[in-house]
Amino acid sequence: MAILVLVIEIVLCLFSLFMIAVVLLQSGKSAGLSGDIAGGAETFLGKSKAKSYEGKLKKLTKVAAVGIMVLAVALVLIQVYVMPNFTGTTDAAPAATPTTQVESTEQAEEAAPTVSPAE
User: Fold this and answer.
1) pLDDT truncated to tens, each residue of the chain (119 aa)?
2) How far apart are CA 67 and CA 59, in angstroms?
3) What's the count of helices (H) and strands (E) in the chain, helices before strands?
4) The pLDDT of residue 96
5) Burial class (CB in 10 A: 0-12, 13-18, 19+), 95
6) What is the pLDDT of residue 27?
7) Is 93 in a helix, a strand, or coil?
8) What count of Cα atoms within 13 Å lies in the side-chain half-sphere of residue 45?
9) Coil, strand, or helix at residue 83?
């Protein structure tokens, strides 16, 4: 099950990098008045907005966003419900805890050196 979690995490990272690249390739909406007139007319009079470069980038952004959400929810569900006590180690023996002996206060007072204040 740990291998499945690792694979999901790697795919999630790849989807994240892909989404960053797709978003950075898109042009901003503030292209100015000339960009609105020329760009709007170009995509409106073109064959289809979905077949244009910007349309494809918008679809890829949506696909990447949905993929990231589905993978993130799946990863959480697997880690919470399928393997809640998984620590990532293969050792079956519990870790040793150090023990200390508590000395009585009388023994501690006798063992402690007394220092007289310098006058």
Assistant:
1) 889 999 999 999 999 999 999 999 988 776 555 555 555 555 555 555 557 888 899 999 999 999 999 999 999 999 898 887 766 555 555 566 666 665 566 665 666 666 667 75
2) 12
3) 4, 0
4) 61
5) exposed
6) 80
7) coil
8) 6
9) coil
Phi, psi of 112 (to 5 degrees): -75, 130
Separation between Cα atoms, residue 41 and residue 46, nearest integer Å:
8
C-beta neighbour count of 16 within 10 angstroms: 15
User: Which tokens belong to 18?
Assistant: 């892909």
Per DSSP, the residues of 22-52 read HHHHSPPS---HHHHHHHHHHHHHSS-STTS
- CA 108 to chain CA centroid, Å, is 51
Please name the residue that has the structure tokens 């993929």: 67
Residue 81 C-alpha from the chain's centroid: 19
Query: Domain segments of the chain: what residues?
Result: 2-87
The three-class DSSP label of residue 3 is helix
- Write the single-letter amino acid at 103: E
